[in-house]
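Subject line: Sequence and fold of a protein, written as structure tokens
Area: Proteins and the way their chains fold up in space.
Start of record: The labelled sequence and token lines come straight after this line.
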Amino acid sequence: MGECTVHVHIDDRIRLLSAVLAATNWPAEEQARKPHGTHAHARGTRKVVAEYTHHPAVHAMQVLLSKGAPLEAMYTYVMRLSWPDLETDETPRWVPPRWNEQLRHFYEVCRLADWWEEEAQHWHEAKTAAETVLQPLNLHDFLEAFIGPVAETFVFAPNISYPTDTEIGLRVGTALYCVAPPRIAWGDNPPWPFDEDPAHVVRATLTEYGRLLVLAYLRQHPDVVARVAEQPLPVTAEYTARYPTFGEQFAGLFVVGAVGLFLEEAISTQEAKAYILMQTKAAGLTILPGMVSVLRRYLEGRAAGRWRELAEYLPHFPKQLRVAKTITTL
């Protein structure tokens, strides 16, 4: 499928914030949502930070979590700090005072550098396994067929700490990051190694990169979006409540359809069907198989020269999706 366009990278700033997260209530809340086994490194990290659950850096993060601050914002902030000094020239207003200094002190008193060195083999295995999956793939070419040239660098950060059940997409300068844990296994079993479930890695990366890129792409075409938004999409009231704007709704549908198409090409039709079925049940949307059909029709039309990019096809999208929904539910 072409040259690899995803760089796999272990970043200490991500590991630091994940260690702070391990000292908050987040691990308990994860288990309350869905009990699951965690990676040995995640369990070990909780022991390392157990004495510091009342540290100012942890308290600040707990307050942010209690206010509903998204992990995406917190990880984006820490990724804009220098390393290892954790200095910055610009601090968003929502960031607690001196949080960067508190994070640096937490890193030092918990002796995280020593802990990561001790656990280096676990991180090396995660990085190598992710590279094995991502090496043959070219996500840039696939996404450029929809939105035109993609200048951003793609980075995948395998995360064997916390969160253990959530992927995070970040835009940091000209790079897009996907911070992702390995796939949760059944019951108390440890999670799957990254290379034993390639579909999980593909889904995580393409979902996060696709969401960030498509939302930015729609912002670049406000006139088209305003026209198309006058035609309601065939989604449920629950979906509309969760994603109130046309852009959010379209991005959510797009990434599911795009992942389904890419899984067919990169792994197998069976994996693609299993993914779409899972997403249909999770979102309560019967139109998701139709979304795959609509995006496939777009690619066929593009290959035939009818349009060059998604903005030209977008005015046809609501009608095509309604037709596809009717066909796929017959």
